[in-house]
Amino acid sequence: MDMTYRSLDRELTAEDPWRLDGNPFERKRHAEMLRLSLTRGAIKNALEVGCAAGAFTEMLAPHCQRLTVVDVVPRAISRAKERTRQWSHMVWVVSDIQRFSAAESFDLIVVAEVLYYLADTVEMRTAIRNLVGMLAPEGLLVFGSARDANCRRWGHAAGAETVIAILKETLIEVGRVHCQGESVNEDCLLACFRNSIQPN
């Protein structure tokens, strides 16, 4: 995993890493992620897992009373923090998602293009269990990922279909979007889940 961190850190030195701002496919993906995130309107307390250079963070921030952003790469946090410096309601944490914890629960958790970096499905399950444990009763979790076939071709253990199946073991799927661009690599699934646990 250290090699993955170093690779991500190097890529974050580029002006627009992964073309998150300049690519129409990425802009469409982020717009759909935001739409799913805002299913219930304004958000009281949100968690974004994996901020990259802050492209989606910047879109989500105005809709949250409080937004906690977690990334394992310090440079990602620095880039996203600089990009969103006009807002003061944000909390920044450098942490591995398998180990991150918070005292409060979140009514929205967004985790996109992150879980396939984990070593195997056992680690993915650990991360998902951790996230679901921080999701408020009736809260929403928005997940996005490249599909299984692409992720495995890139050398990862699994992608969207596998993680969606794991999430459906504990959460209720309430929406799904298929985003596809011109490249074979631009093929992802977004899904929105609700925590069916009723508030006390």
TrEMBL record:
Q: Which domain of life is it from?
A: Bacteria
| Key word Methyltransferase present | yes
Q: Which residues form the signal peptide?
A: none
Q: Which GO terms describe its molecular function?
A: S-adenosylmethionine-dependent methyltransferase activity
- Keywords linked to the UniProt accession: Methyltransferase, Nodulation, Transferase
Name of the protein in question: Nodulation protein S
Q: Which GO terms describe its biological process?
A: methylation; oligosaccharide biosynthetic process
A Pfam family name for this chain?
Answer: NodS
As for what it does, the entry says:
SAM-utilizing methyltransferase involved in nod factor synthesis.
- The answer to whether the entry has keyword Nucleotidyltransferase is no
What family does the database annotate? Belongs to the NodS family.
